[in-house]
Amino acid sequence: MKLVLAAYGTRGDIEPSVAVGRELLRRGHDVRIAVPPDLVGFAETAGLPAVPYGLDTQAWVGVYRDFWTCFFGEFWKVRKLRRLWREMWDLSDQAWKQMSTVLTSLAEGADLLFVGQSYQEPAANVAEYLGIPLATLHNTPTRPNGQLLATLPSPLARMAMRLFDWGGWRMNKKVEDAQRRELGLPKATGPTSRRIIQRGSLEIQAFDEVCFPGLAAEWSSWKDTRPFVGTLTMQLETEDDADVTSWIADGPPPICFGFGSMPVHSPSDTMEMIAGACAELGERALVCSGRTDYSAAPHFDHVKVVGAVNYATVFPACRAAVHHGGAGTLAASLRAGVPTLVLWIDGAQPVWASRVKRLKVGISRHFSTATRETIVADLRRILTPEYVTRAHEVAAQMTKPAESVARTADLVEDYARSRIFS
Q1: Is 382 left (phi over 0), alpha (psi -120 to 50) or beta?
Q2: How far apart are alpha carbons 219 and 65 in whole angstroms?
Q3: Confidence at residue 422, expressed as pLDDT on a 0 to 100 scale
Q4: Which of 171, 215, 291, 409 is deepest in the core (most CB within 10 A)?
Q5: What is the value of pTM for the model shown?
Q6: β strands within 112-237, DSSP E
Q7: Fold of 2-57+90-231+400-420
Q8: Going edge to edge, which strands form the sheet with 50-52?
Q9: Angle, alpha carbons 82-86-88 (nearest 5°)
Q10: Topology of the domain covering 241-395
């Protein structure tokens, strides 16, 4: 079968789709994937034919970080918020238009279009135009439900999600109307999510049920179209893994810090905060730099700075994990069975940050409010036997990565075949 995949976002957003695409390619299918231009190399390294899709992540990641930092920490600076909001939206519209052009060409004649969580809207319009089946991949339960917003009563949470969905559609209506007009499609009269559901599309939930207690029961009517498969990852080895493993073995288990693809504002201040907190606690620190450049930051004997590492290898060897709360990174720390401190940065990460509290495996706070003192207090709390024991219990309930990938590939194959012969 000819299967076209599309995924947009940073490395953590792309890896789930690449993991599935690699498995589908191994099974003999004709697979193509569209990813951000600066992640084409990543997809190709995994063996997938890839094409550039949307804008480079570097074009928007700084603006995105700054907006959410201002929104949560300096909300009274209205002019700054409005400026950053306009910048984000302009970049989004540019990406949308480019995505439509790429997918319209790439997916022609395909048996299935399989799209990641971000920018499902332009992909759904292309699938409708080409008359091909659409499957979606979700690393967070974004369809209305009563479990995502744990601080609200279930009915109110569902209503809030419906309003958010409708509001997002209205904000994108101008660019979507332009896309549908160019494709010769009638103007949409409701959110894309409703149209996806009405088409009976497969909506794979790429996270574990244990993270959202009660969601499977709430969605029992959609159990065939919204299967839970667990978090998708390739657990790729990196060139730093051997060095890190050796360093860990030379002393007591460290605390691992990493903030993924979202660069921190001040690497020097962040390093001093981490080093000071760990020195006070008598702990070593392993700092995974991601897209943050720590080369000009001060160096400390009890802190090791590395680039990318395989969290599946490193996290289990650490005492605790401190990170931004991305869906994939959090799943890695849950699978590793280590207590977690989430220092979230953007507007989506609080959803996963709330999971560590609900599961009683850790705590969270906004990155901008973190200090040496708060990190010391937070780590002392999560390193108690209560959190350590609970982290081990949750780890035993997580789906193994290989099973998640195989299950997802089975579902995609079965769905595509059912549509071919229907």
Answers
A1: alpha
A2: 33
A3: 60
A4: 409
A5: 0.90
A6: 112-115, 134-138, 202-205
A7: Rossmann fold (3.40.50)
A8: 50-52, 30-35, 2-6, 112-115, 134-138, 202-205
A9: 115
A10: Rossmann fold (3.40.50)
